[in-house]
Design the sequence.
């Protein structure tokens, strides 16, 4: 799993790519890619979108939770919490 730092520009991985690596589980009535935080199927529209890492919390050497600031591609500036398995690096910050 890629580990990130503040300022890195990242892209949300594609659903099928994450599903292949982590598998899919059913939670209530939703399919969820089984990353540490879980990537719920209604988040599929953000797959491929980009943002900049604003904060990183390392839980253990191989796991991070990150706060992402969406860039202009999303049309809004907002923050969300994700785990690092949901991203691919575009450029180092």
Sequence:
């Amino acid at each position: 799993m890629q580990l990130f730092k503040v300022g890195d520009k990242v892209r949300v991985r594609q659903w099928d790519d994450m599903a292949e690596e982590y598998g899919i589980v059913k939670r209530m009535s939703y399919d969820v890619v089984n990353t540490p935080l879980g990537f719920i199927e209604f988040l599929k529209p953000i797959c491929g979108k980009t943002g900049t890492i604003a904060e990183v919390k390392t839980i253990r050497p191989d796991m991070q939770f990150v706060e992402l600031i969406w860039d202009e591609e999303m049309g809004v500036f907002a923050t969300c919490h994700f785990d690092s398995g949901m991203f691919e690096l575009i450029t180092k910050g």
Q: What stands out?
A: The chain is about 10% helix and 45% strand. Residues 9-91 form one domain. The mean pLDDT is 84.
